[in-house]
Structure formats: structure tokens, C-alpha cells
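Input sequence (181 aa), recorded before submission:
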Amino acid sequence: MSAGRVAQQLARIGMKVVEEEGAEGFLEDVRIEHGTLYYCPDARPSNLLHEAGHLACMPPMFRREASGDMDDMAEAMCDYAERRMAITGDPEEPIMRAIMQCSDTEATAWAWAFGRHIGLAPEDIIEDRDYDGAGAEVRVQVSSGMHLGVHGLRAAGMLGSVRDWPLMSKWLQNAEEGKDR
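Predicted structure, C-alpha cell format:
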């Protein structure tokens, strides 16, 4: 499946996706800018899915601001979480759980679940060369549900039960401040 077809499927779930020749970001041929995924027509589906996973797992209030390397967004979310904890003292409120569960592991698991949902071959979702050449090992972990990201998605409220894996209960994180209960 081409990057364009993957992008069409991402758009169907509400992601902002734009084809752009020369798009470059943290991963080759894919860039995140203000919550929008820009991708080259010949981008590898694995790269597009992984970056989409970062955006999908992120609470919407941060998703629309996400640009470049997601480490910067992680810092902003941690700062917010610290301020929120000072107000509510509740680390279990959904916005807090969502912030805690939107790291690289959840993006990897999300990419797997979405890739399988749209019918991609496992080797196209996570290529052998991904993850510093450990892609085959990561594929085994995530396909069997024995990957930390699977449990993170469940903790974030995006997966009903690990037994349901890889069937997600929602594709986009929707936890927001004040709309958590």
C-alpha cells in the first residue's frame, strides 16, 4: 500500500494529512507541523504510521500544537501535567493518563493496530530496518500483545482490553481538561 493510500485512511479517522514533495522531519519523508502530517509521495508507510501514532495518542489540546520532534511536545505535556496535579491532585484523571501514555511505545503499538486495521502486511507496518535494525523483534512483540505500548494504549483508554488487541476502542485520544469524567 502506498503512502497516499495510508494517508487517505488516516484522514478518514480525522487526522490532517497533506502530501508534500520534500517533506522531511524526525523520520524520513514525514514531517509533523501544527498537528498536521506532511508526507512525501514515496514515504515508507511505516514512517507515516509511526508519526501518525504520536499524534493519535496525544490529547487534542496538544495535538494541534505538535511540530517537529515530539520530545518538545513531551516537555510541554509534562509541564502541563505538573500544573494540573497542583490543581487537582488526581493522577488518574483521563487527561493525566493520556499524557502519561503517549510515548514512543504507544505510537509503535498504535501504528501496528492501525496498519493491521487497514490491511497492511506486518513487514510494511514495521520494517526490519526500523528501530535501529530491531524491527523484526519489535514486530513479534507488538503482534503478540507483549509490547509495553499495547498496555499503554489500554491505560490511556484507547484499547478496551489487552485481550481485544489489536482492535482499538478509539483511534484518536480525546481526553481533555475538564471533560474527563
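Checked by second reader. Residues 3-164 form one domain.
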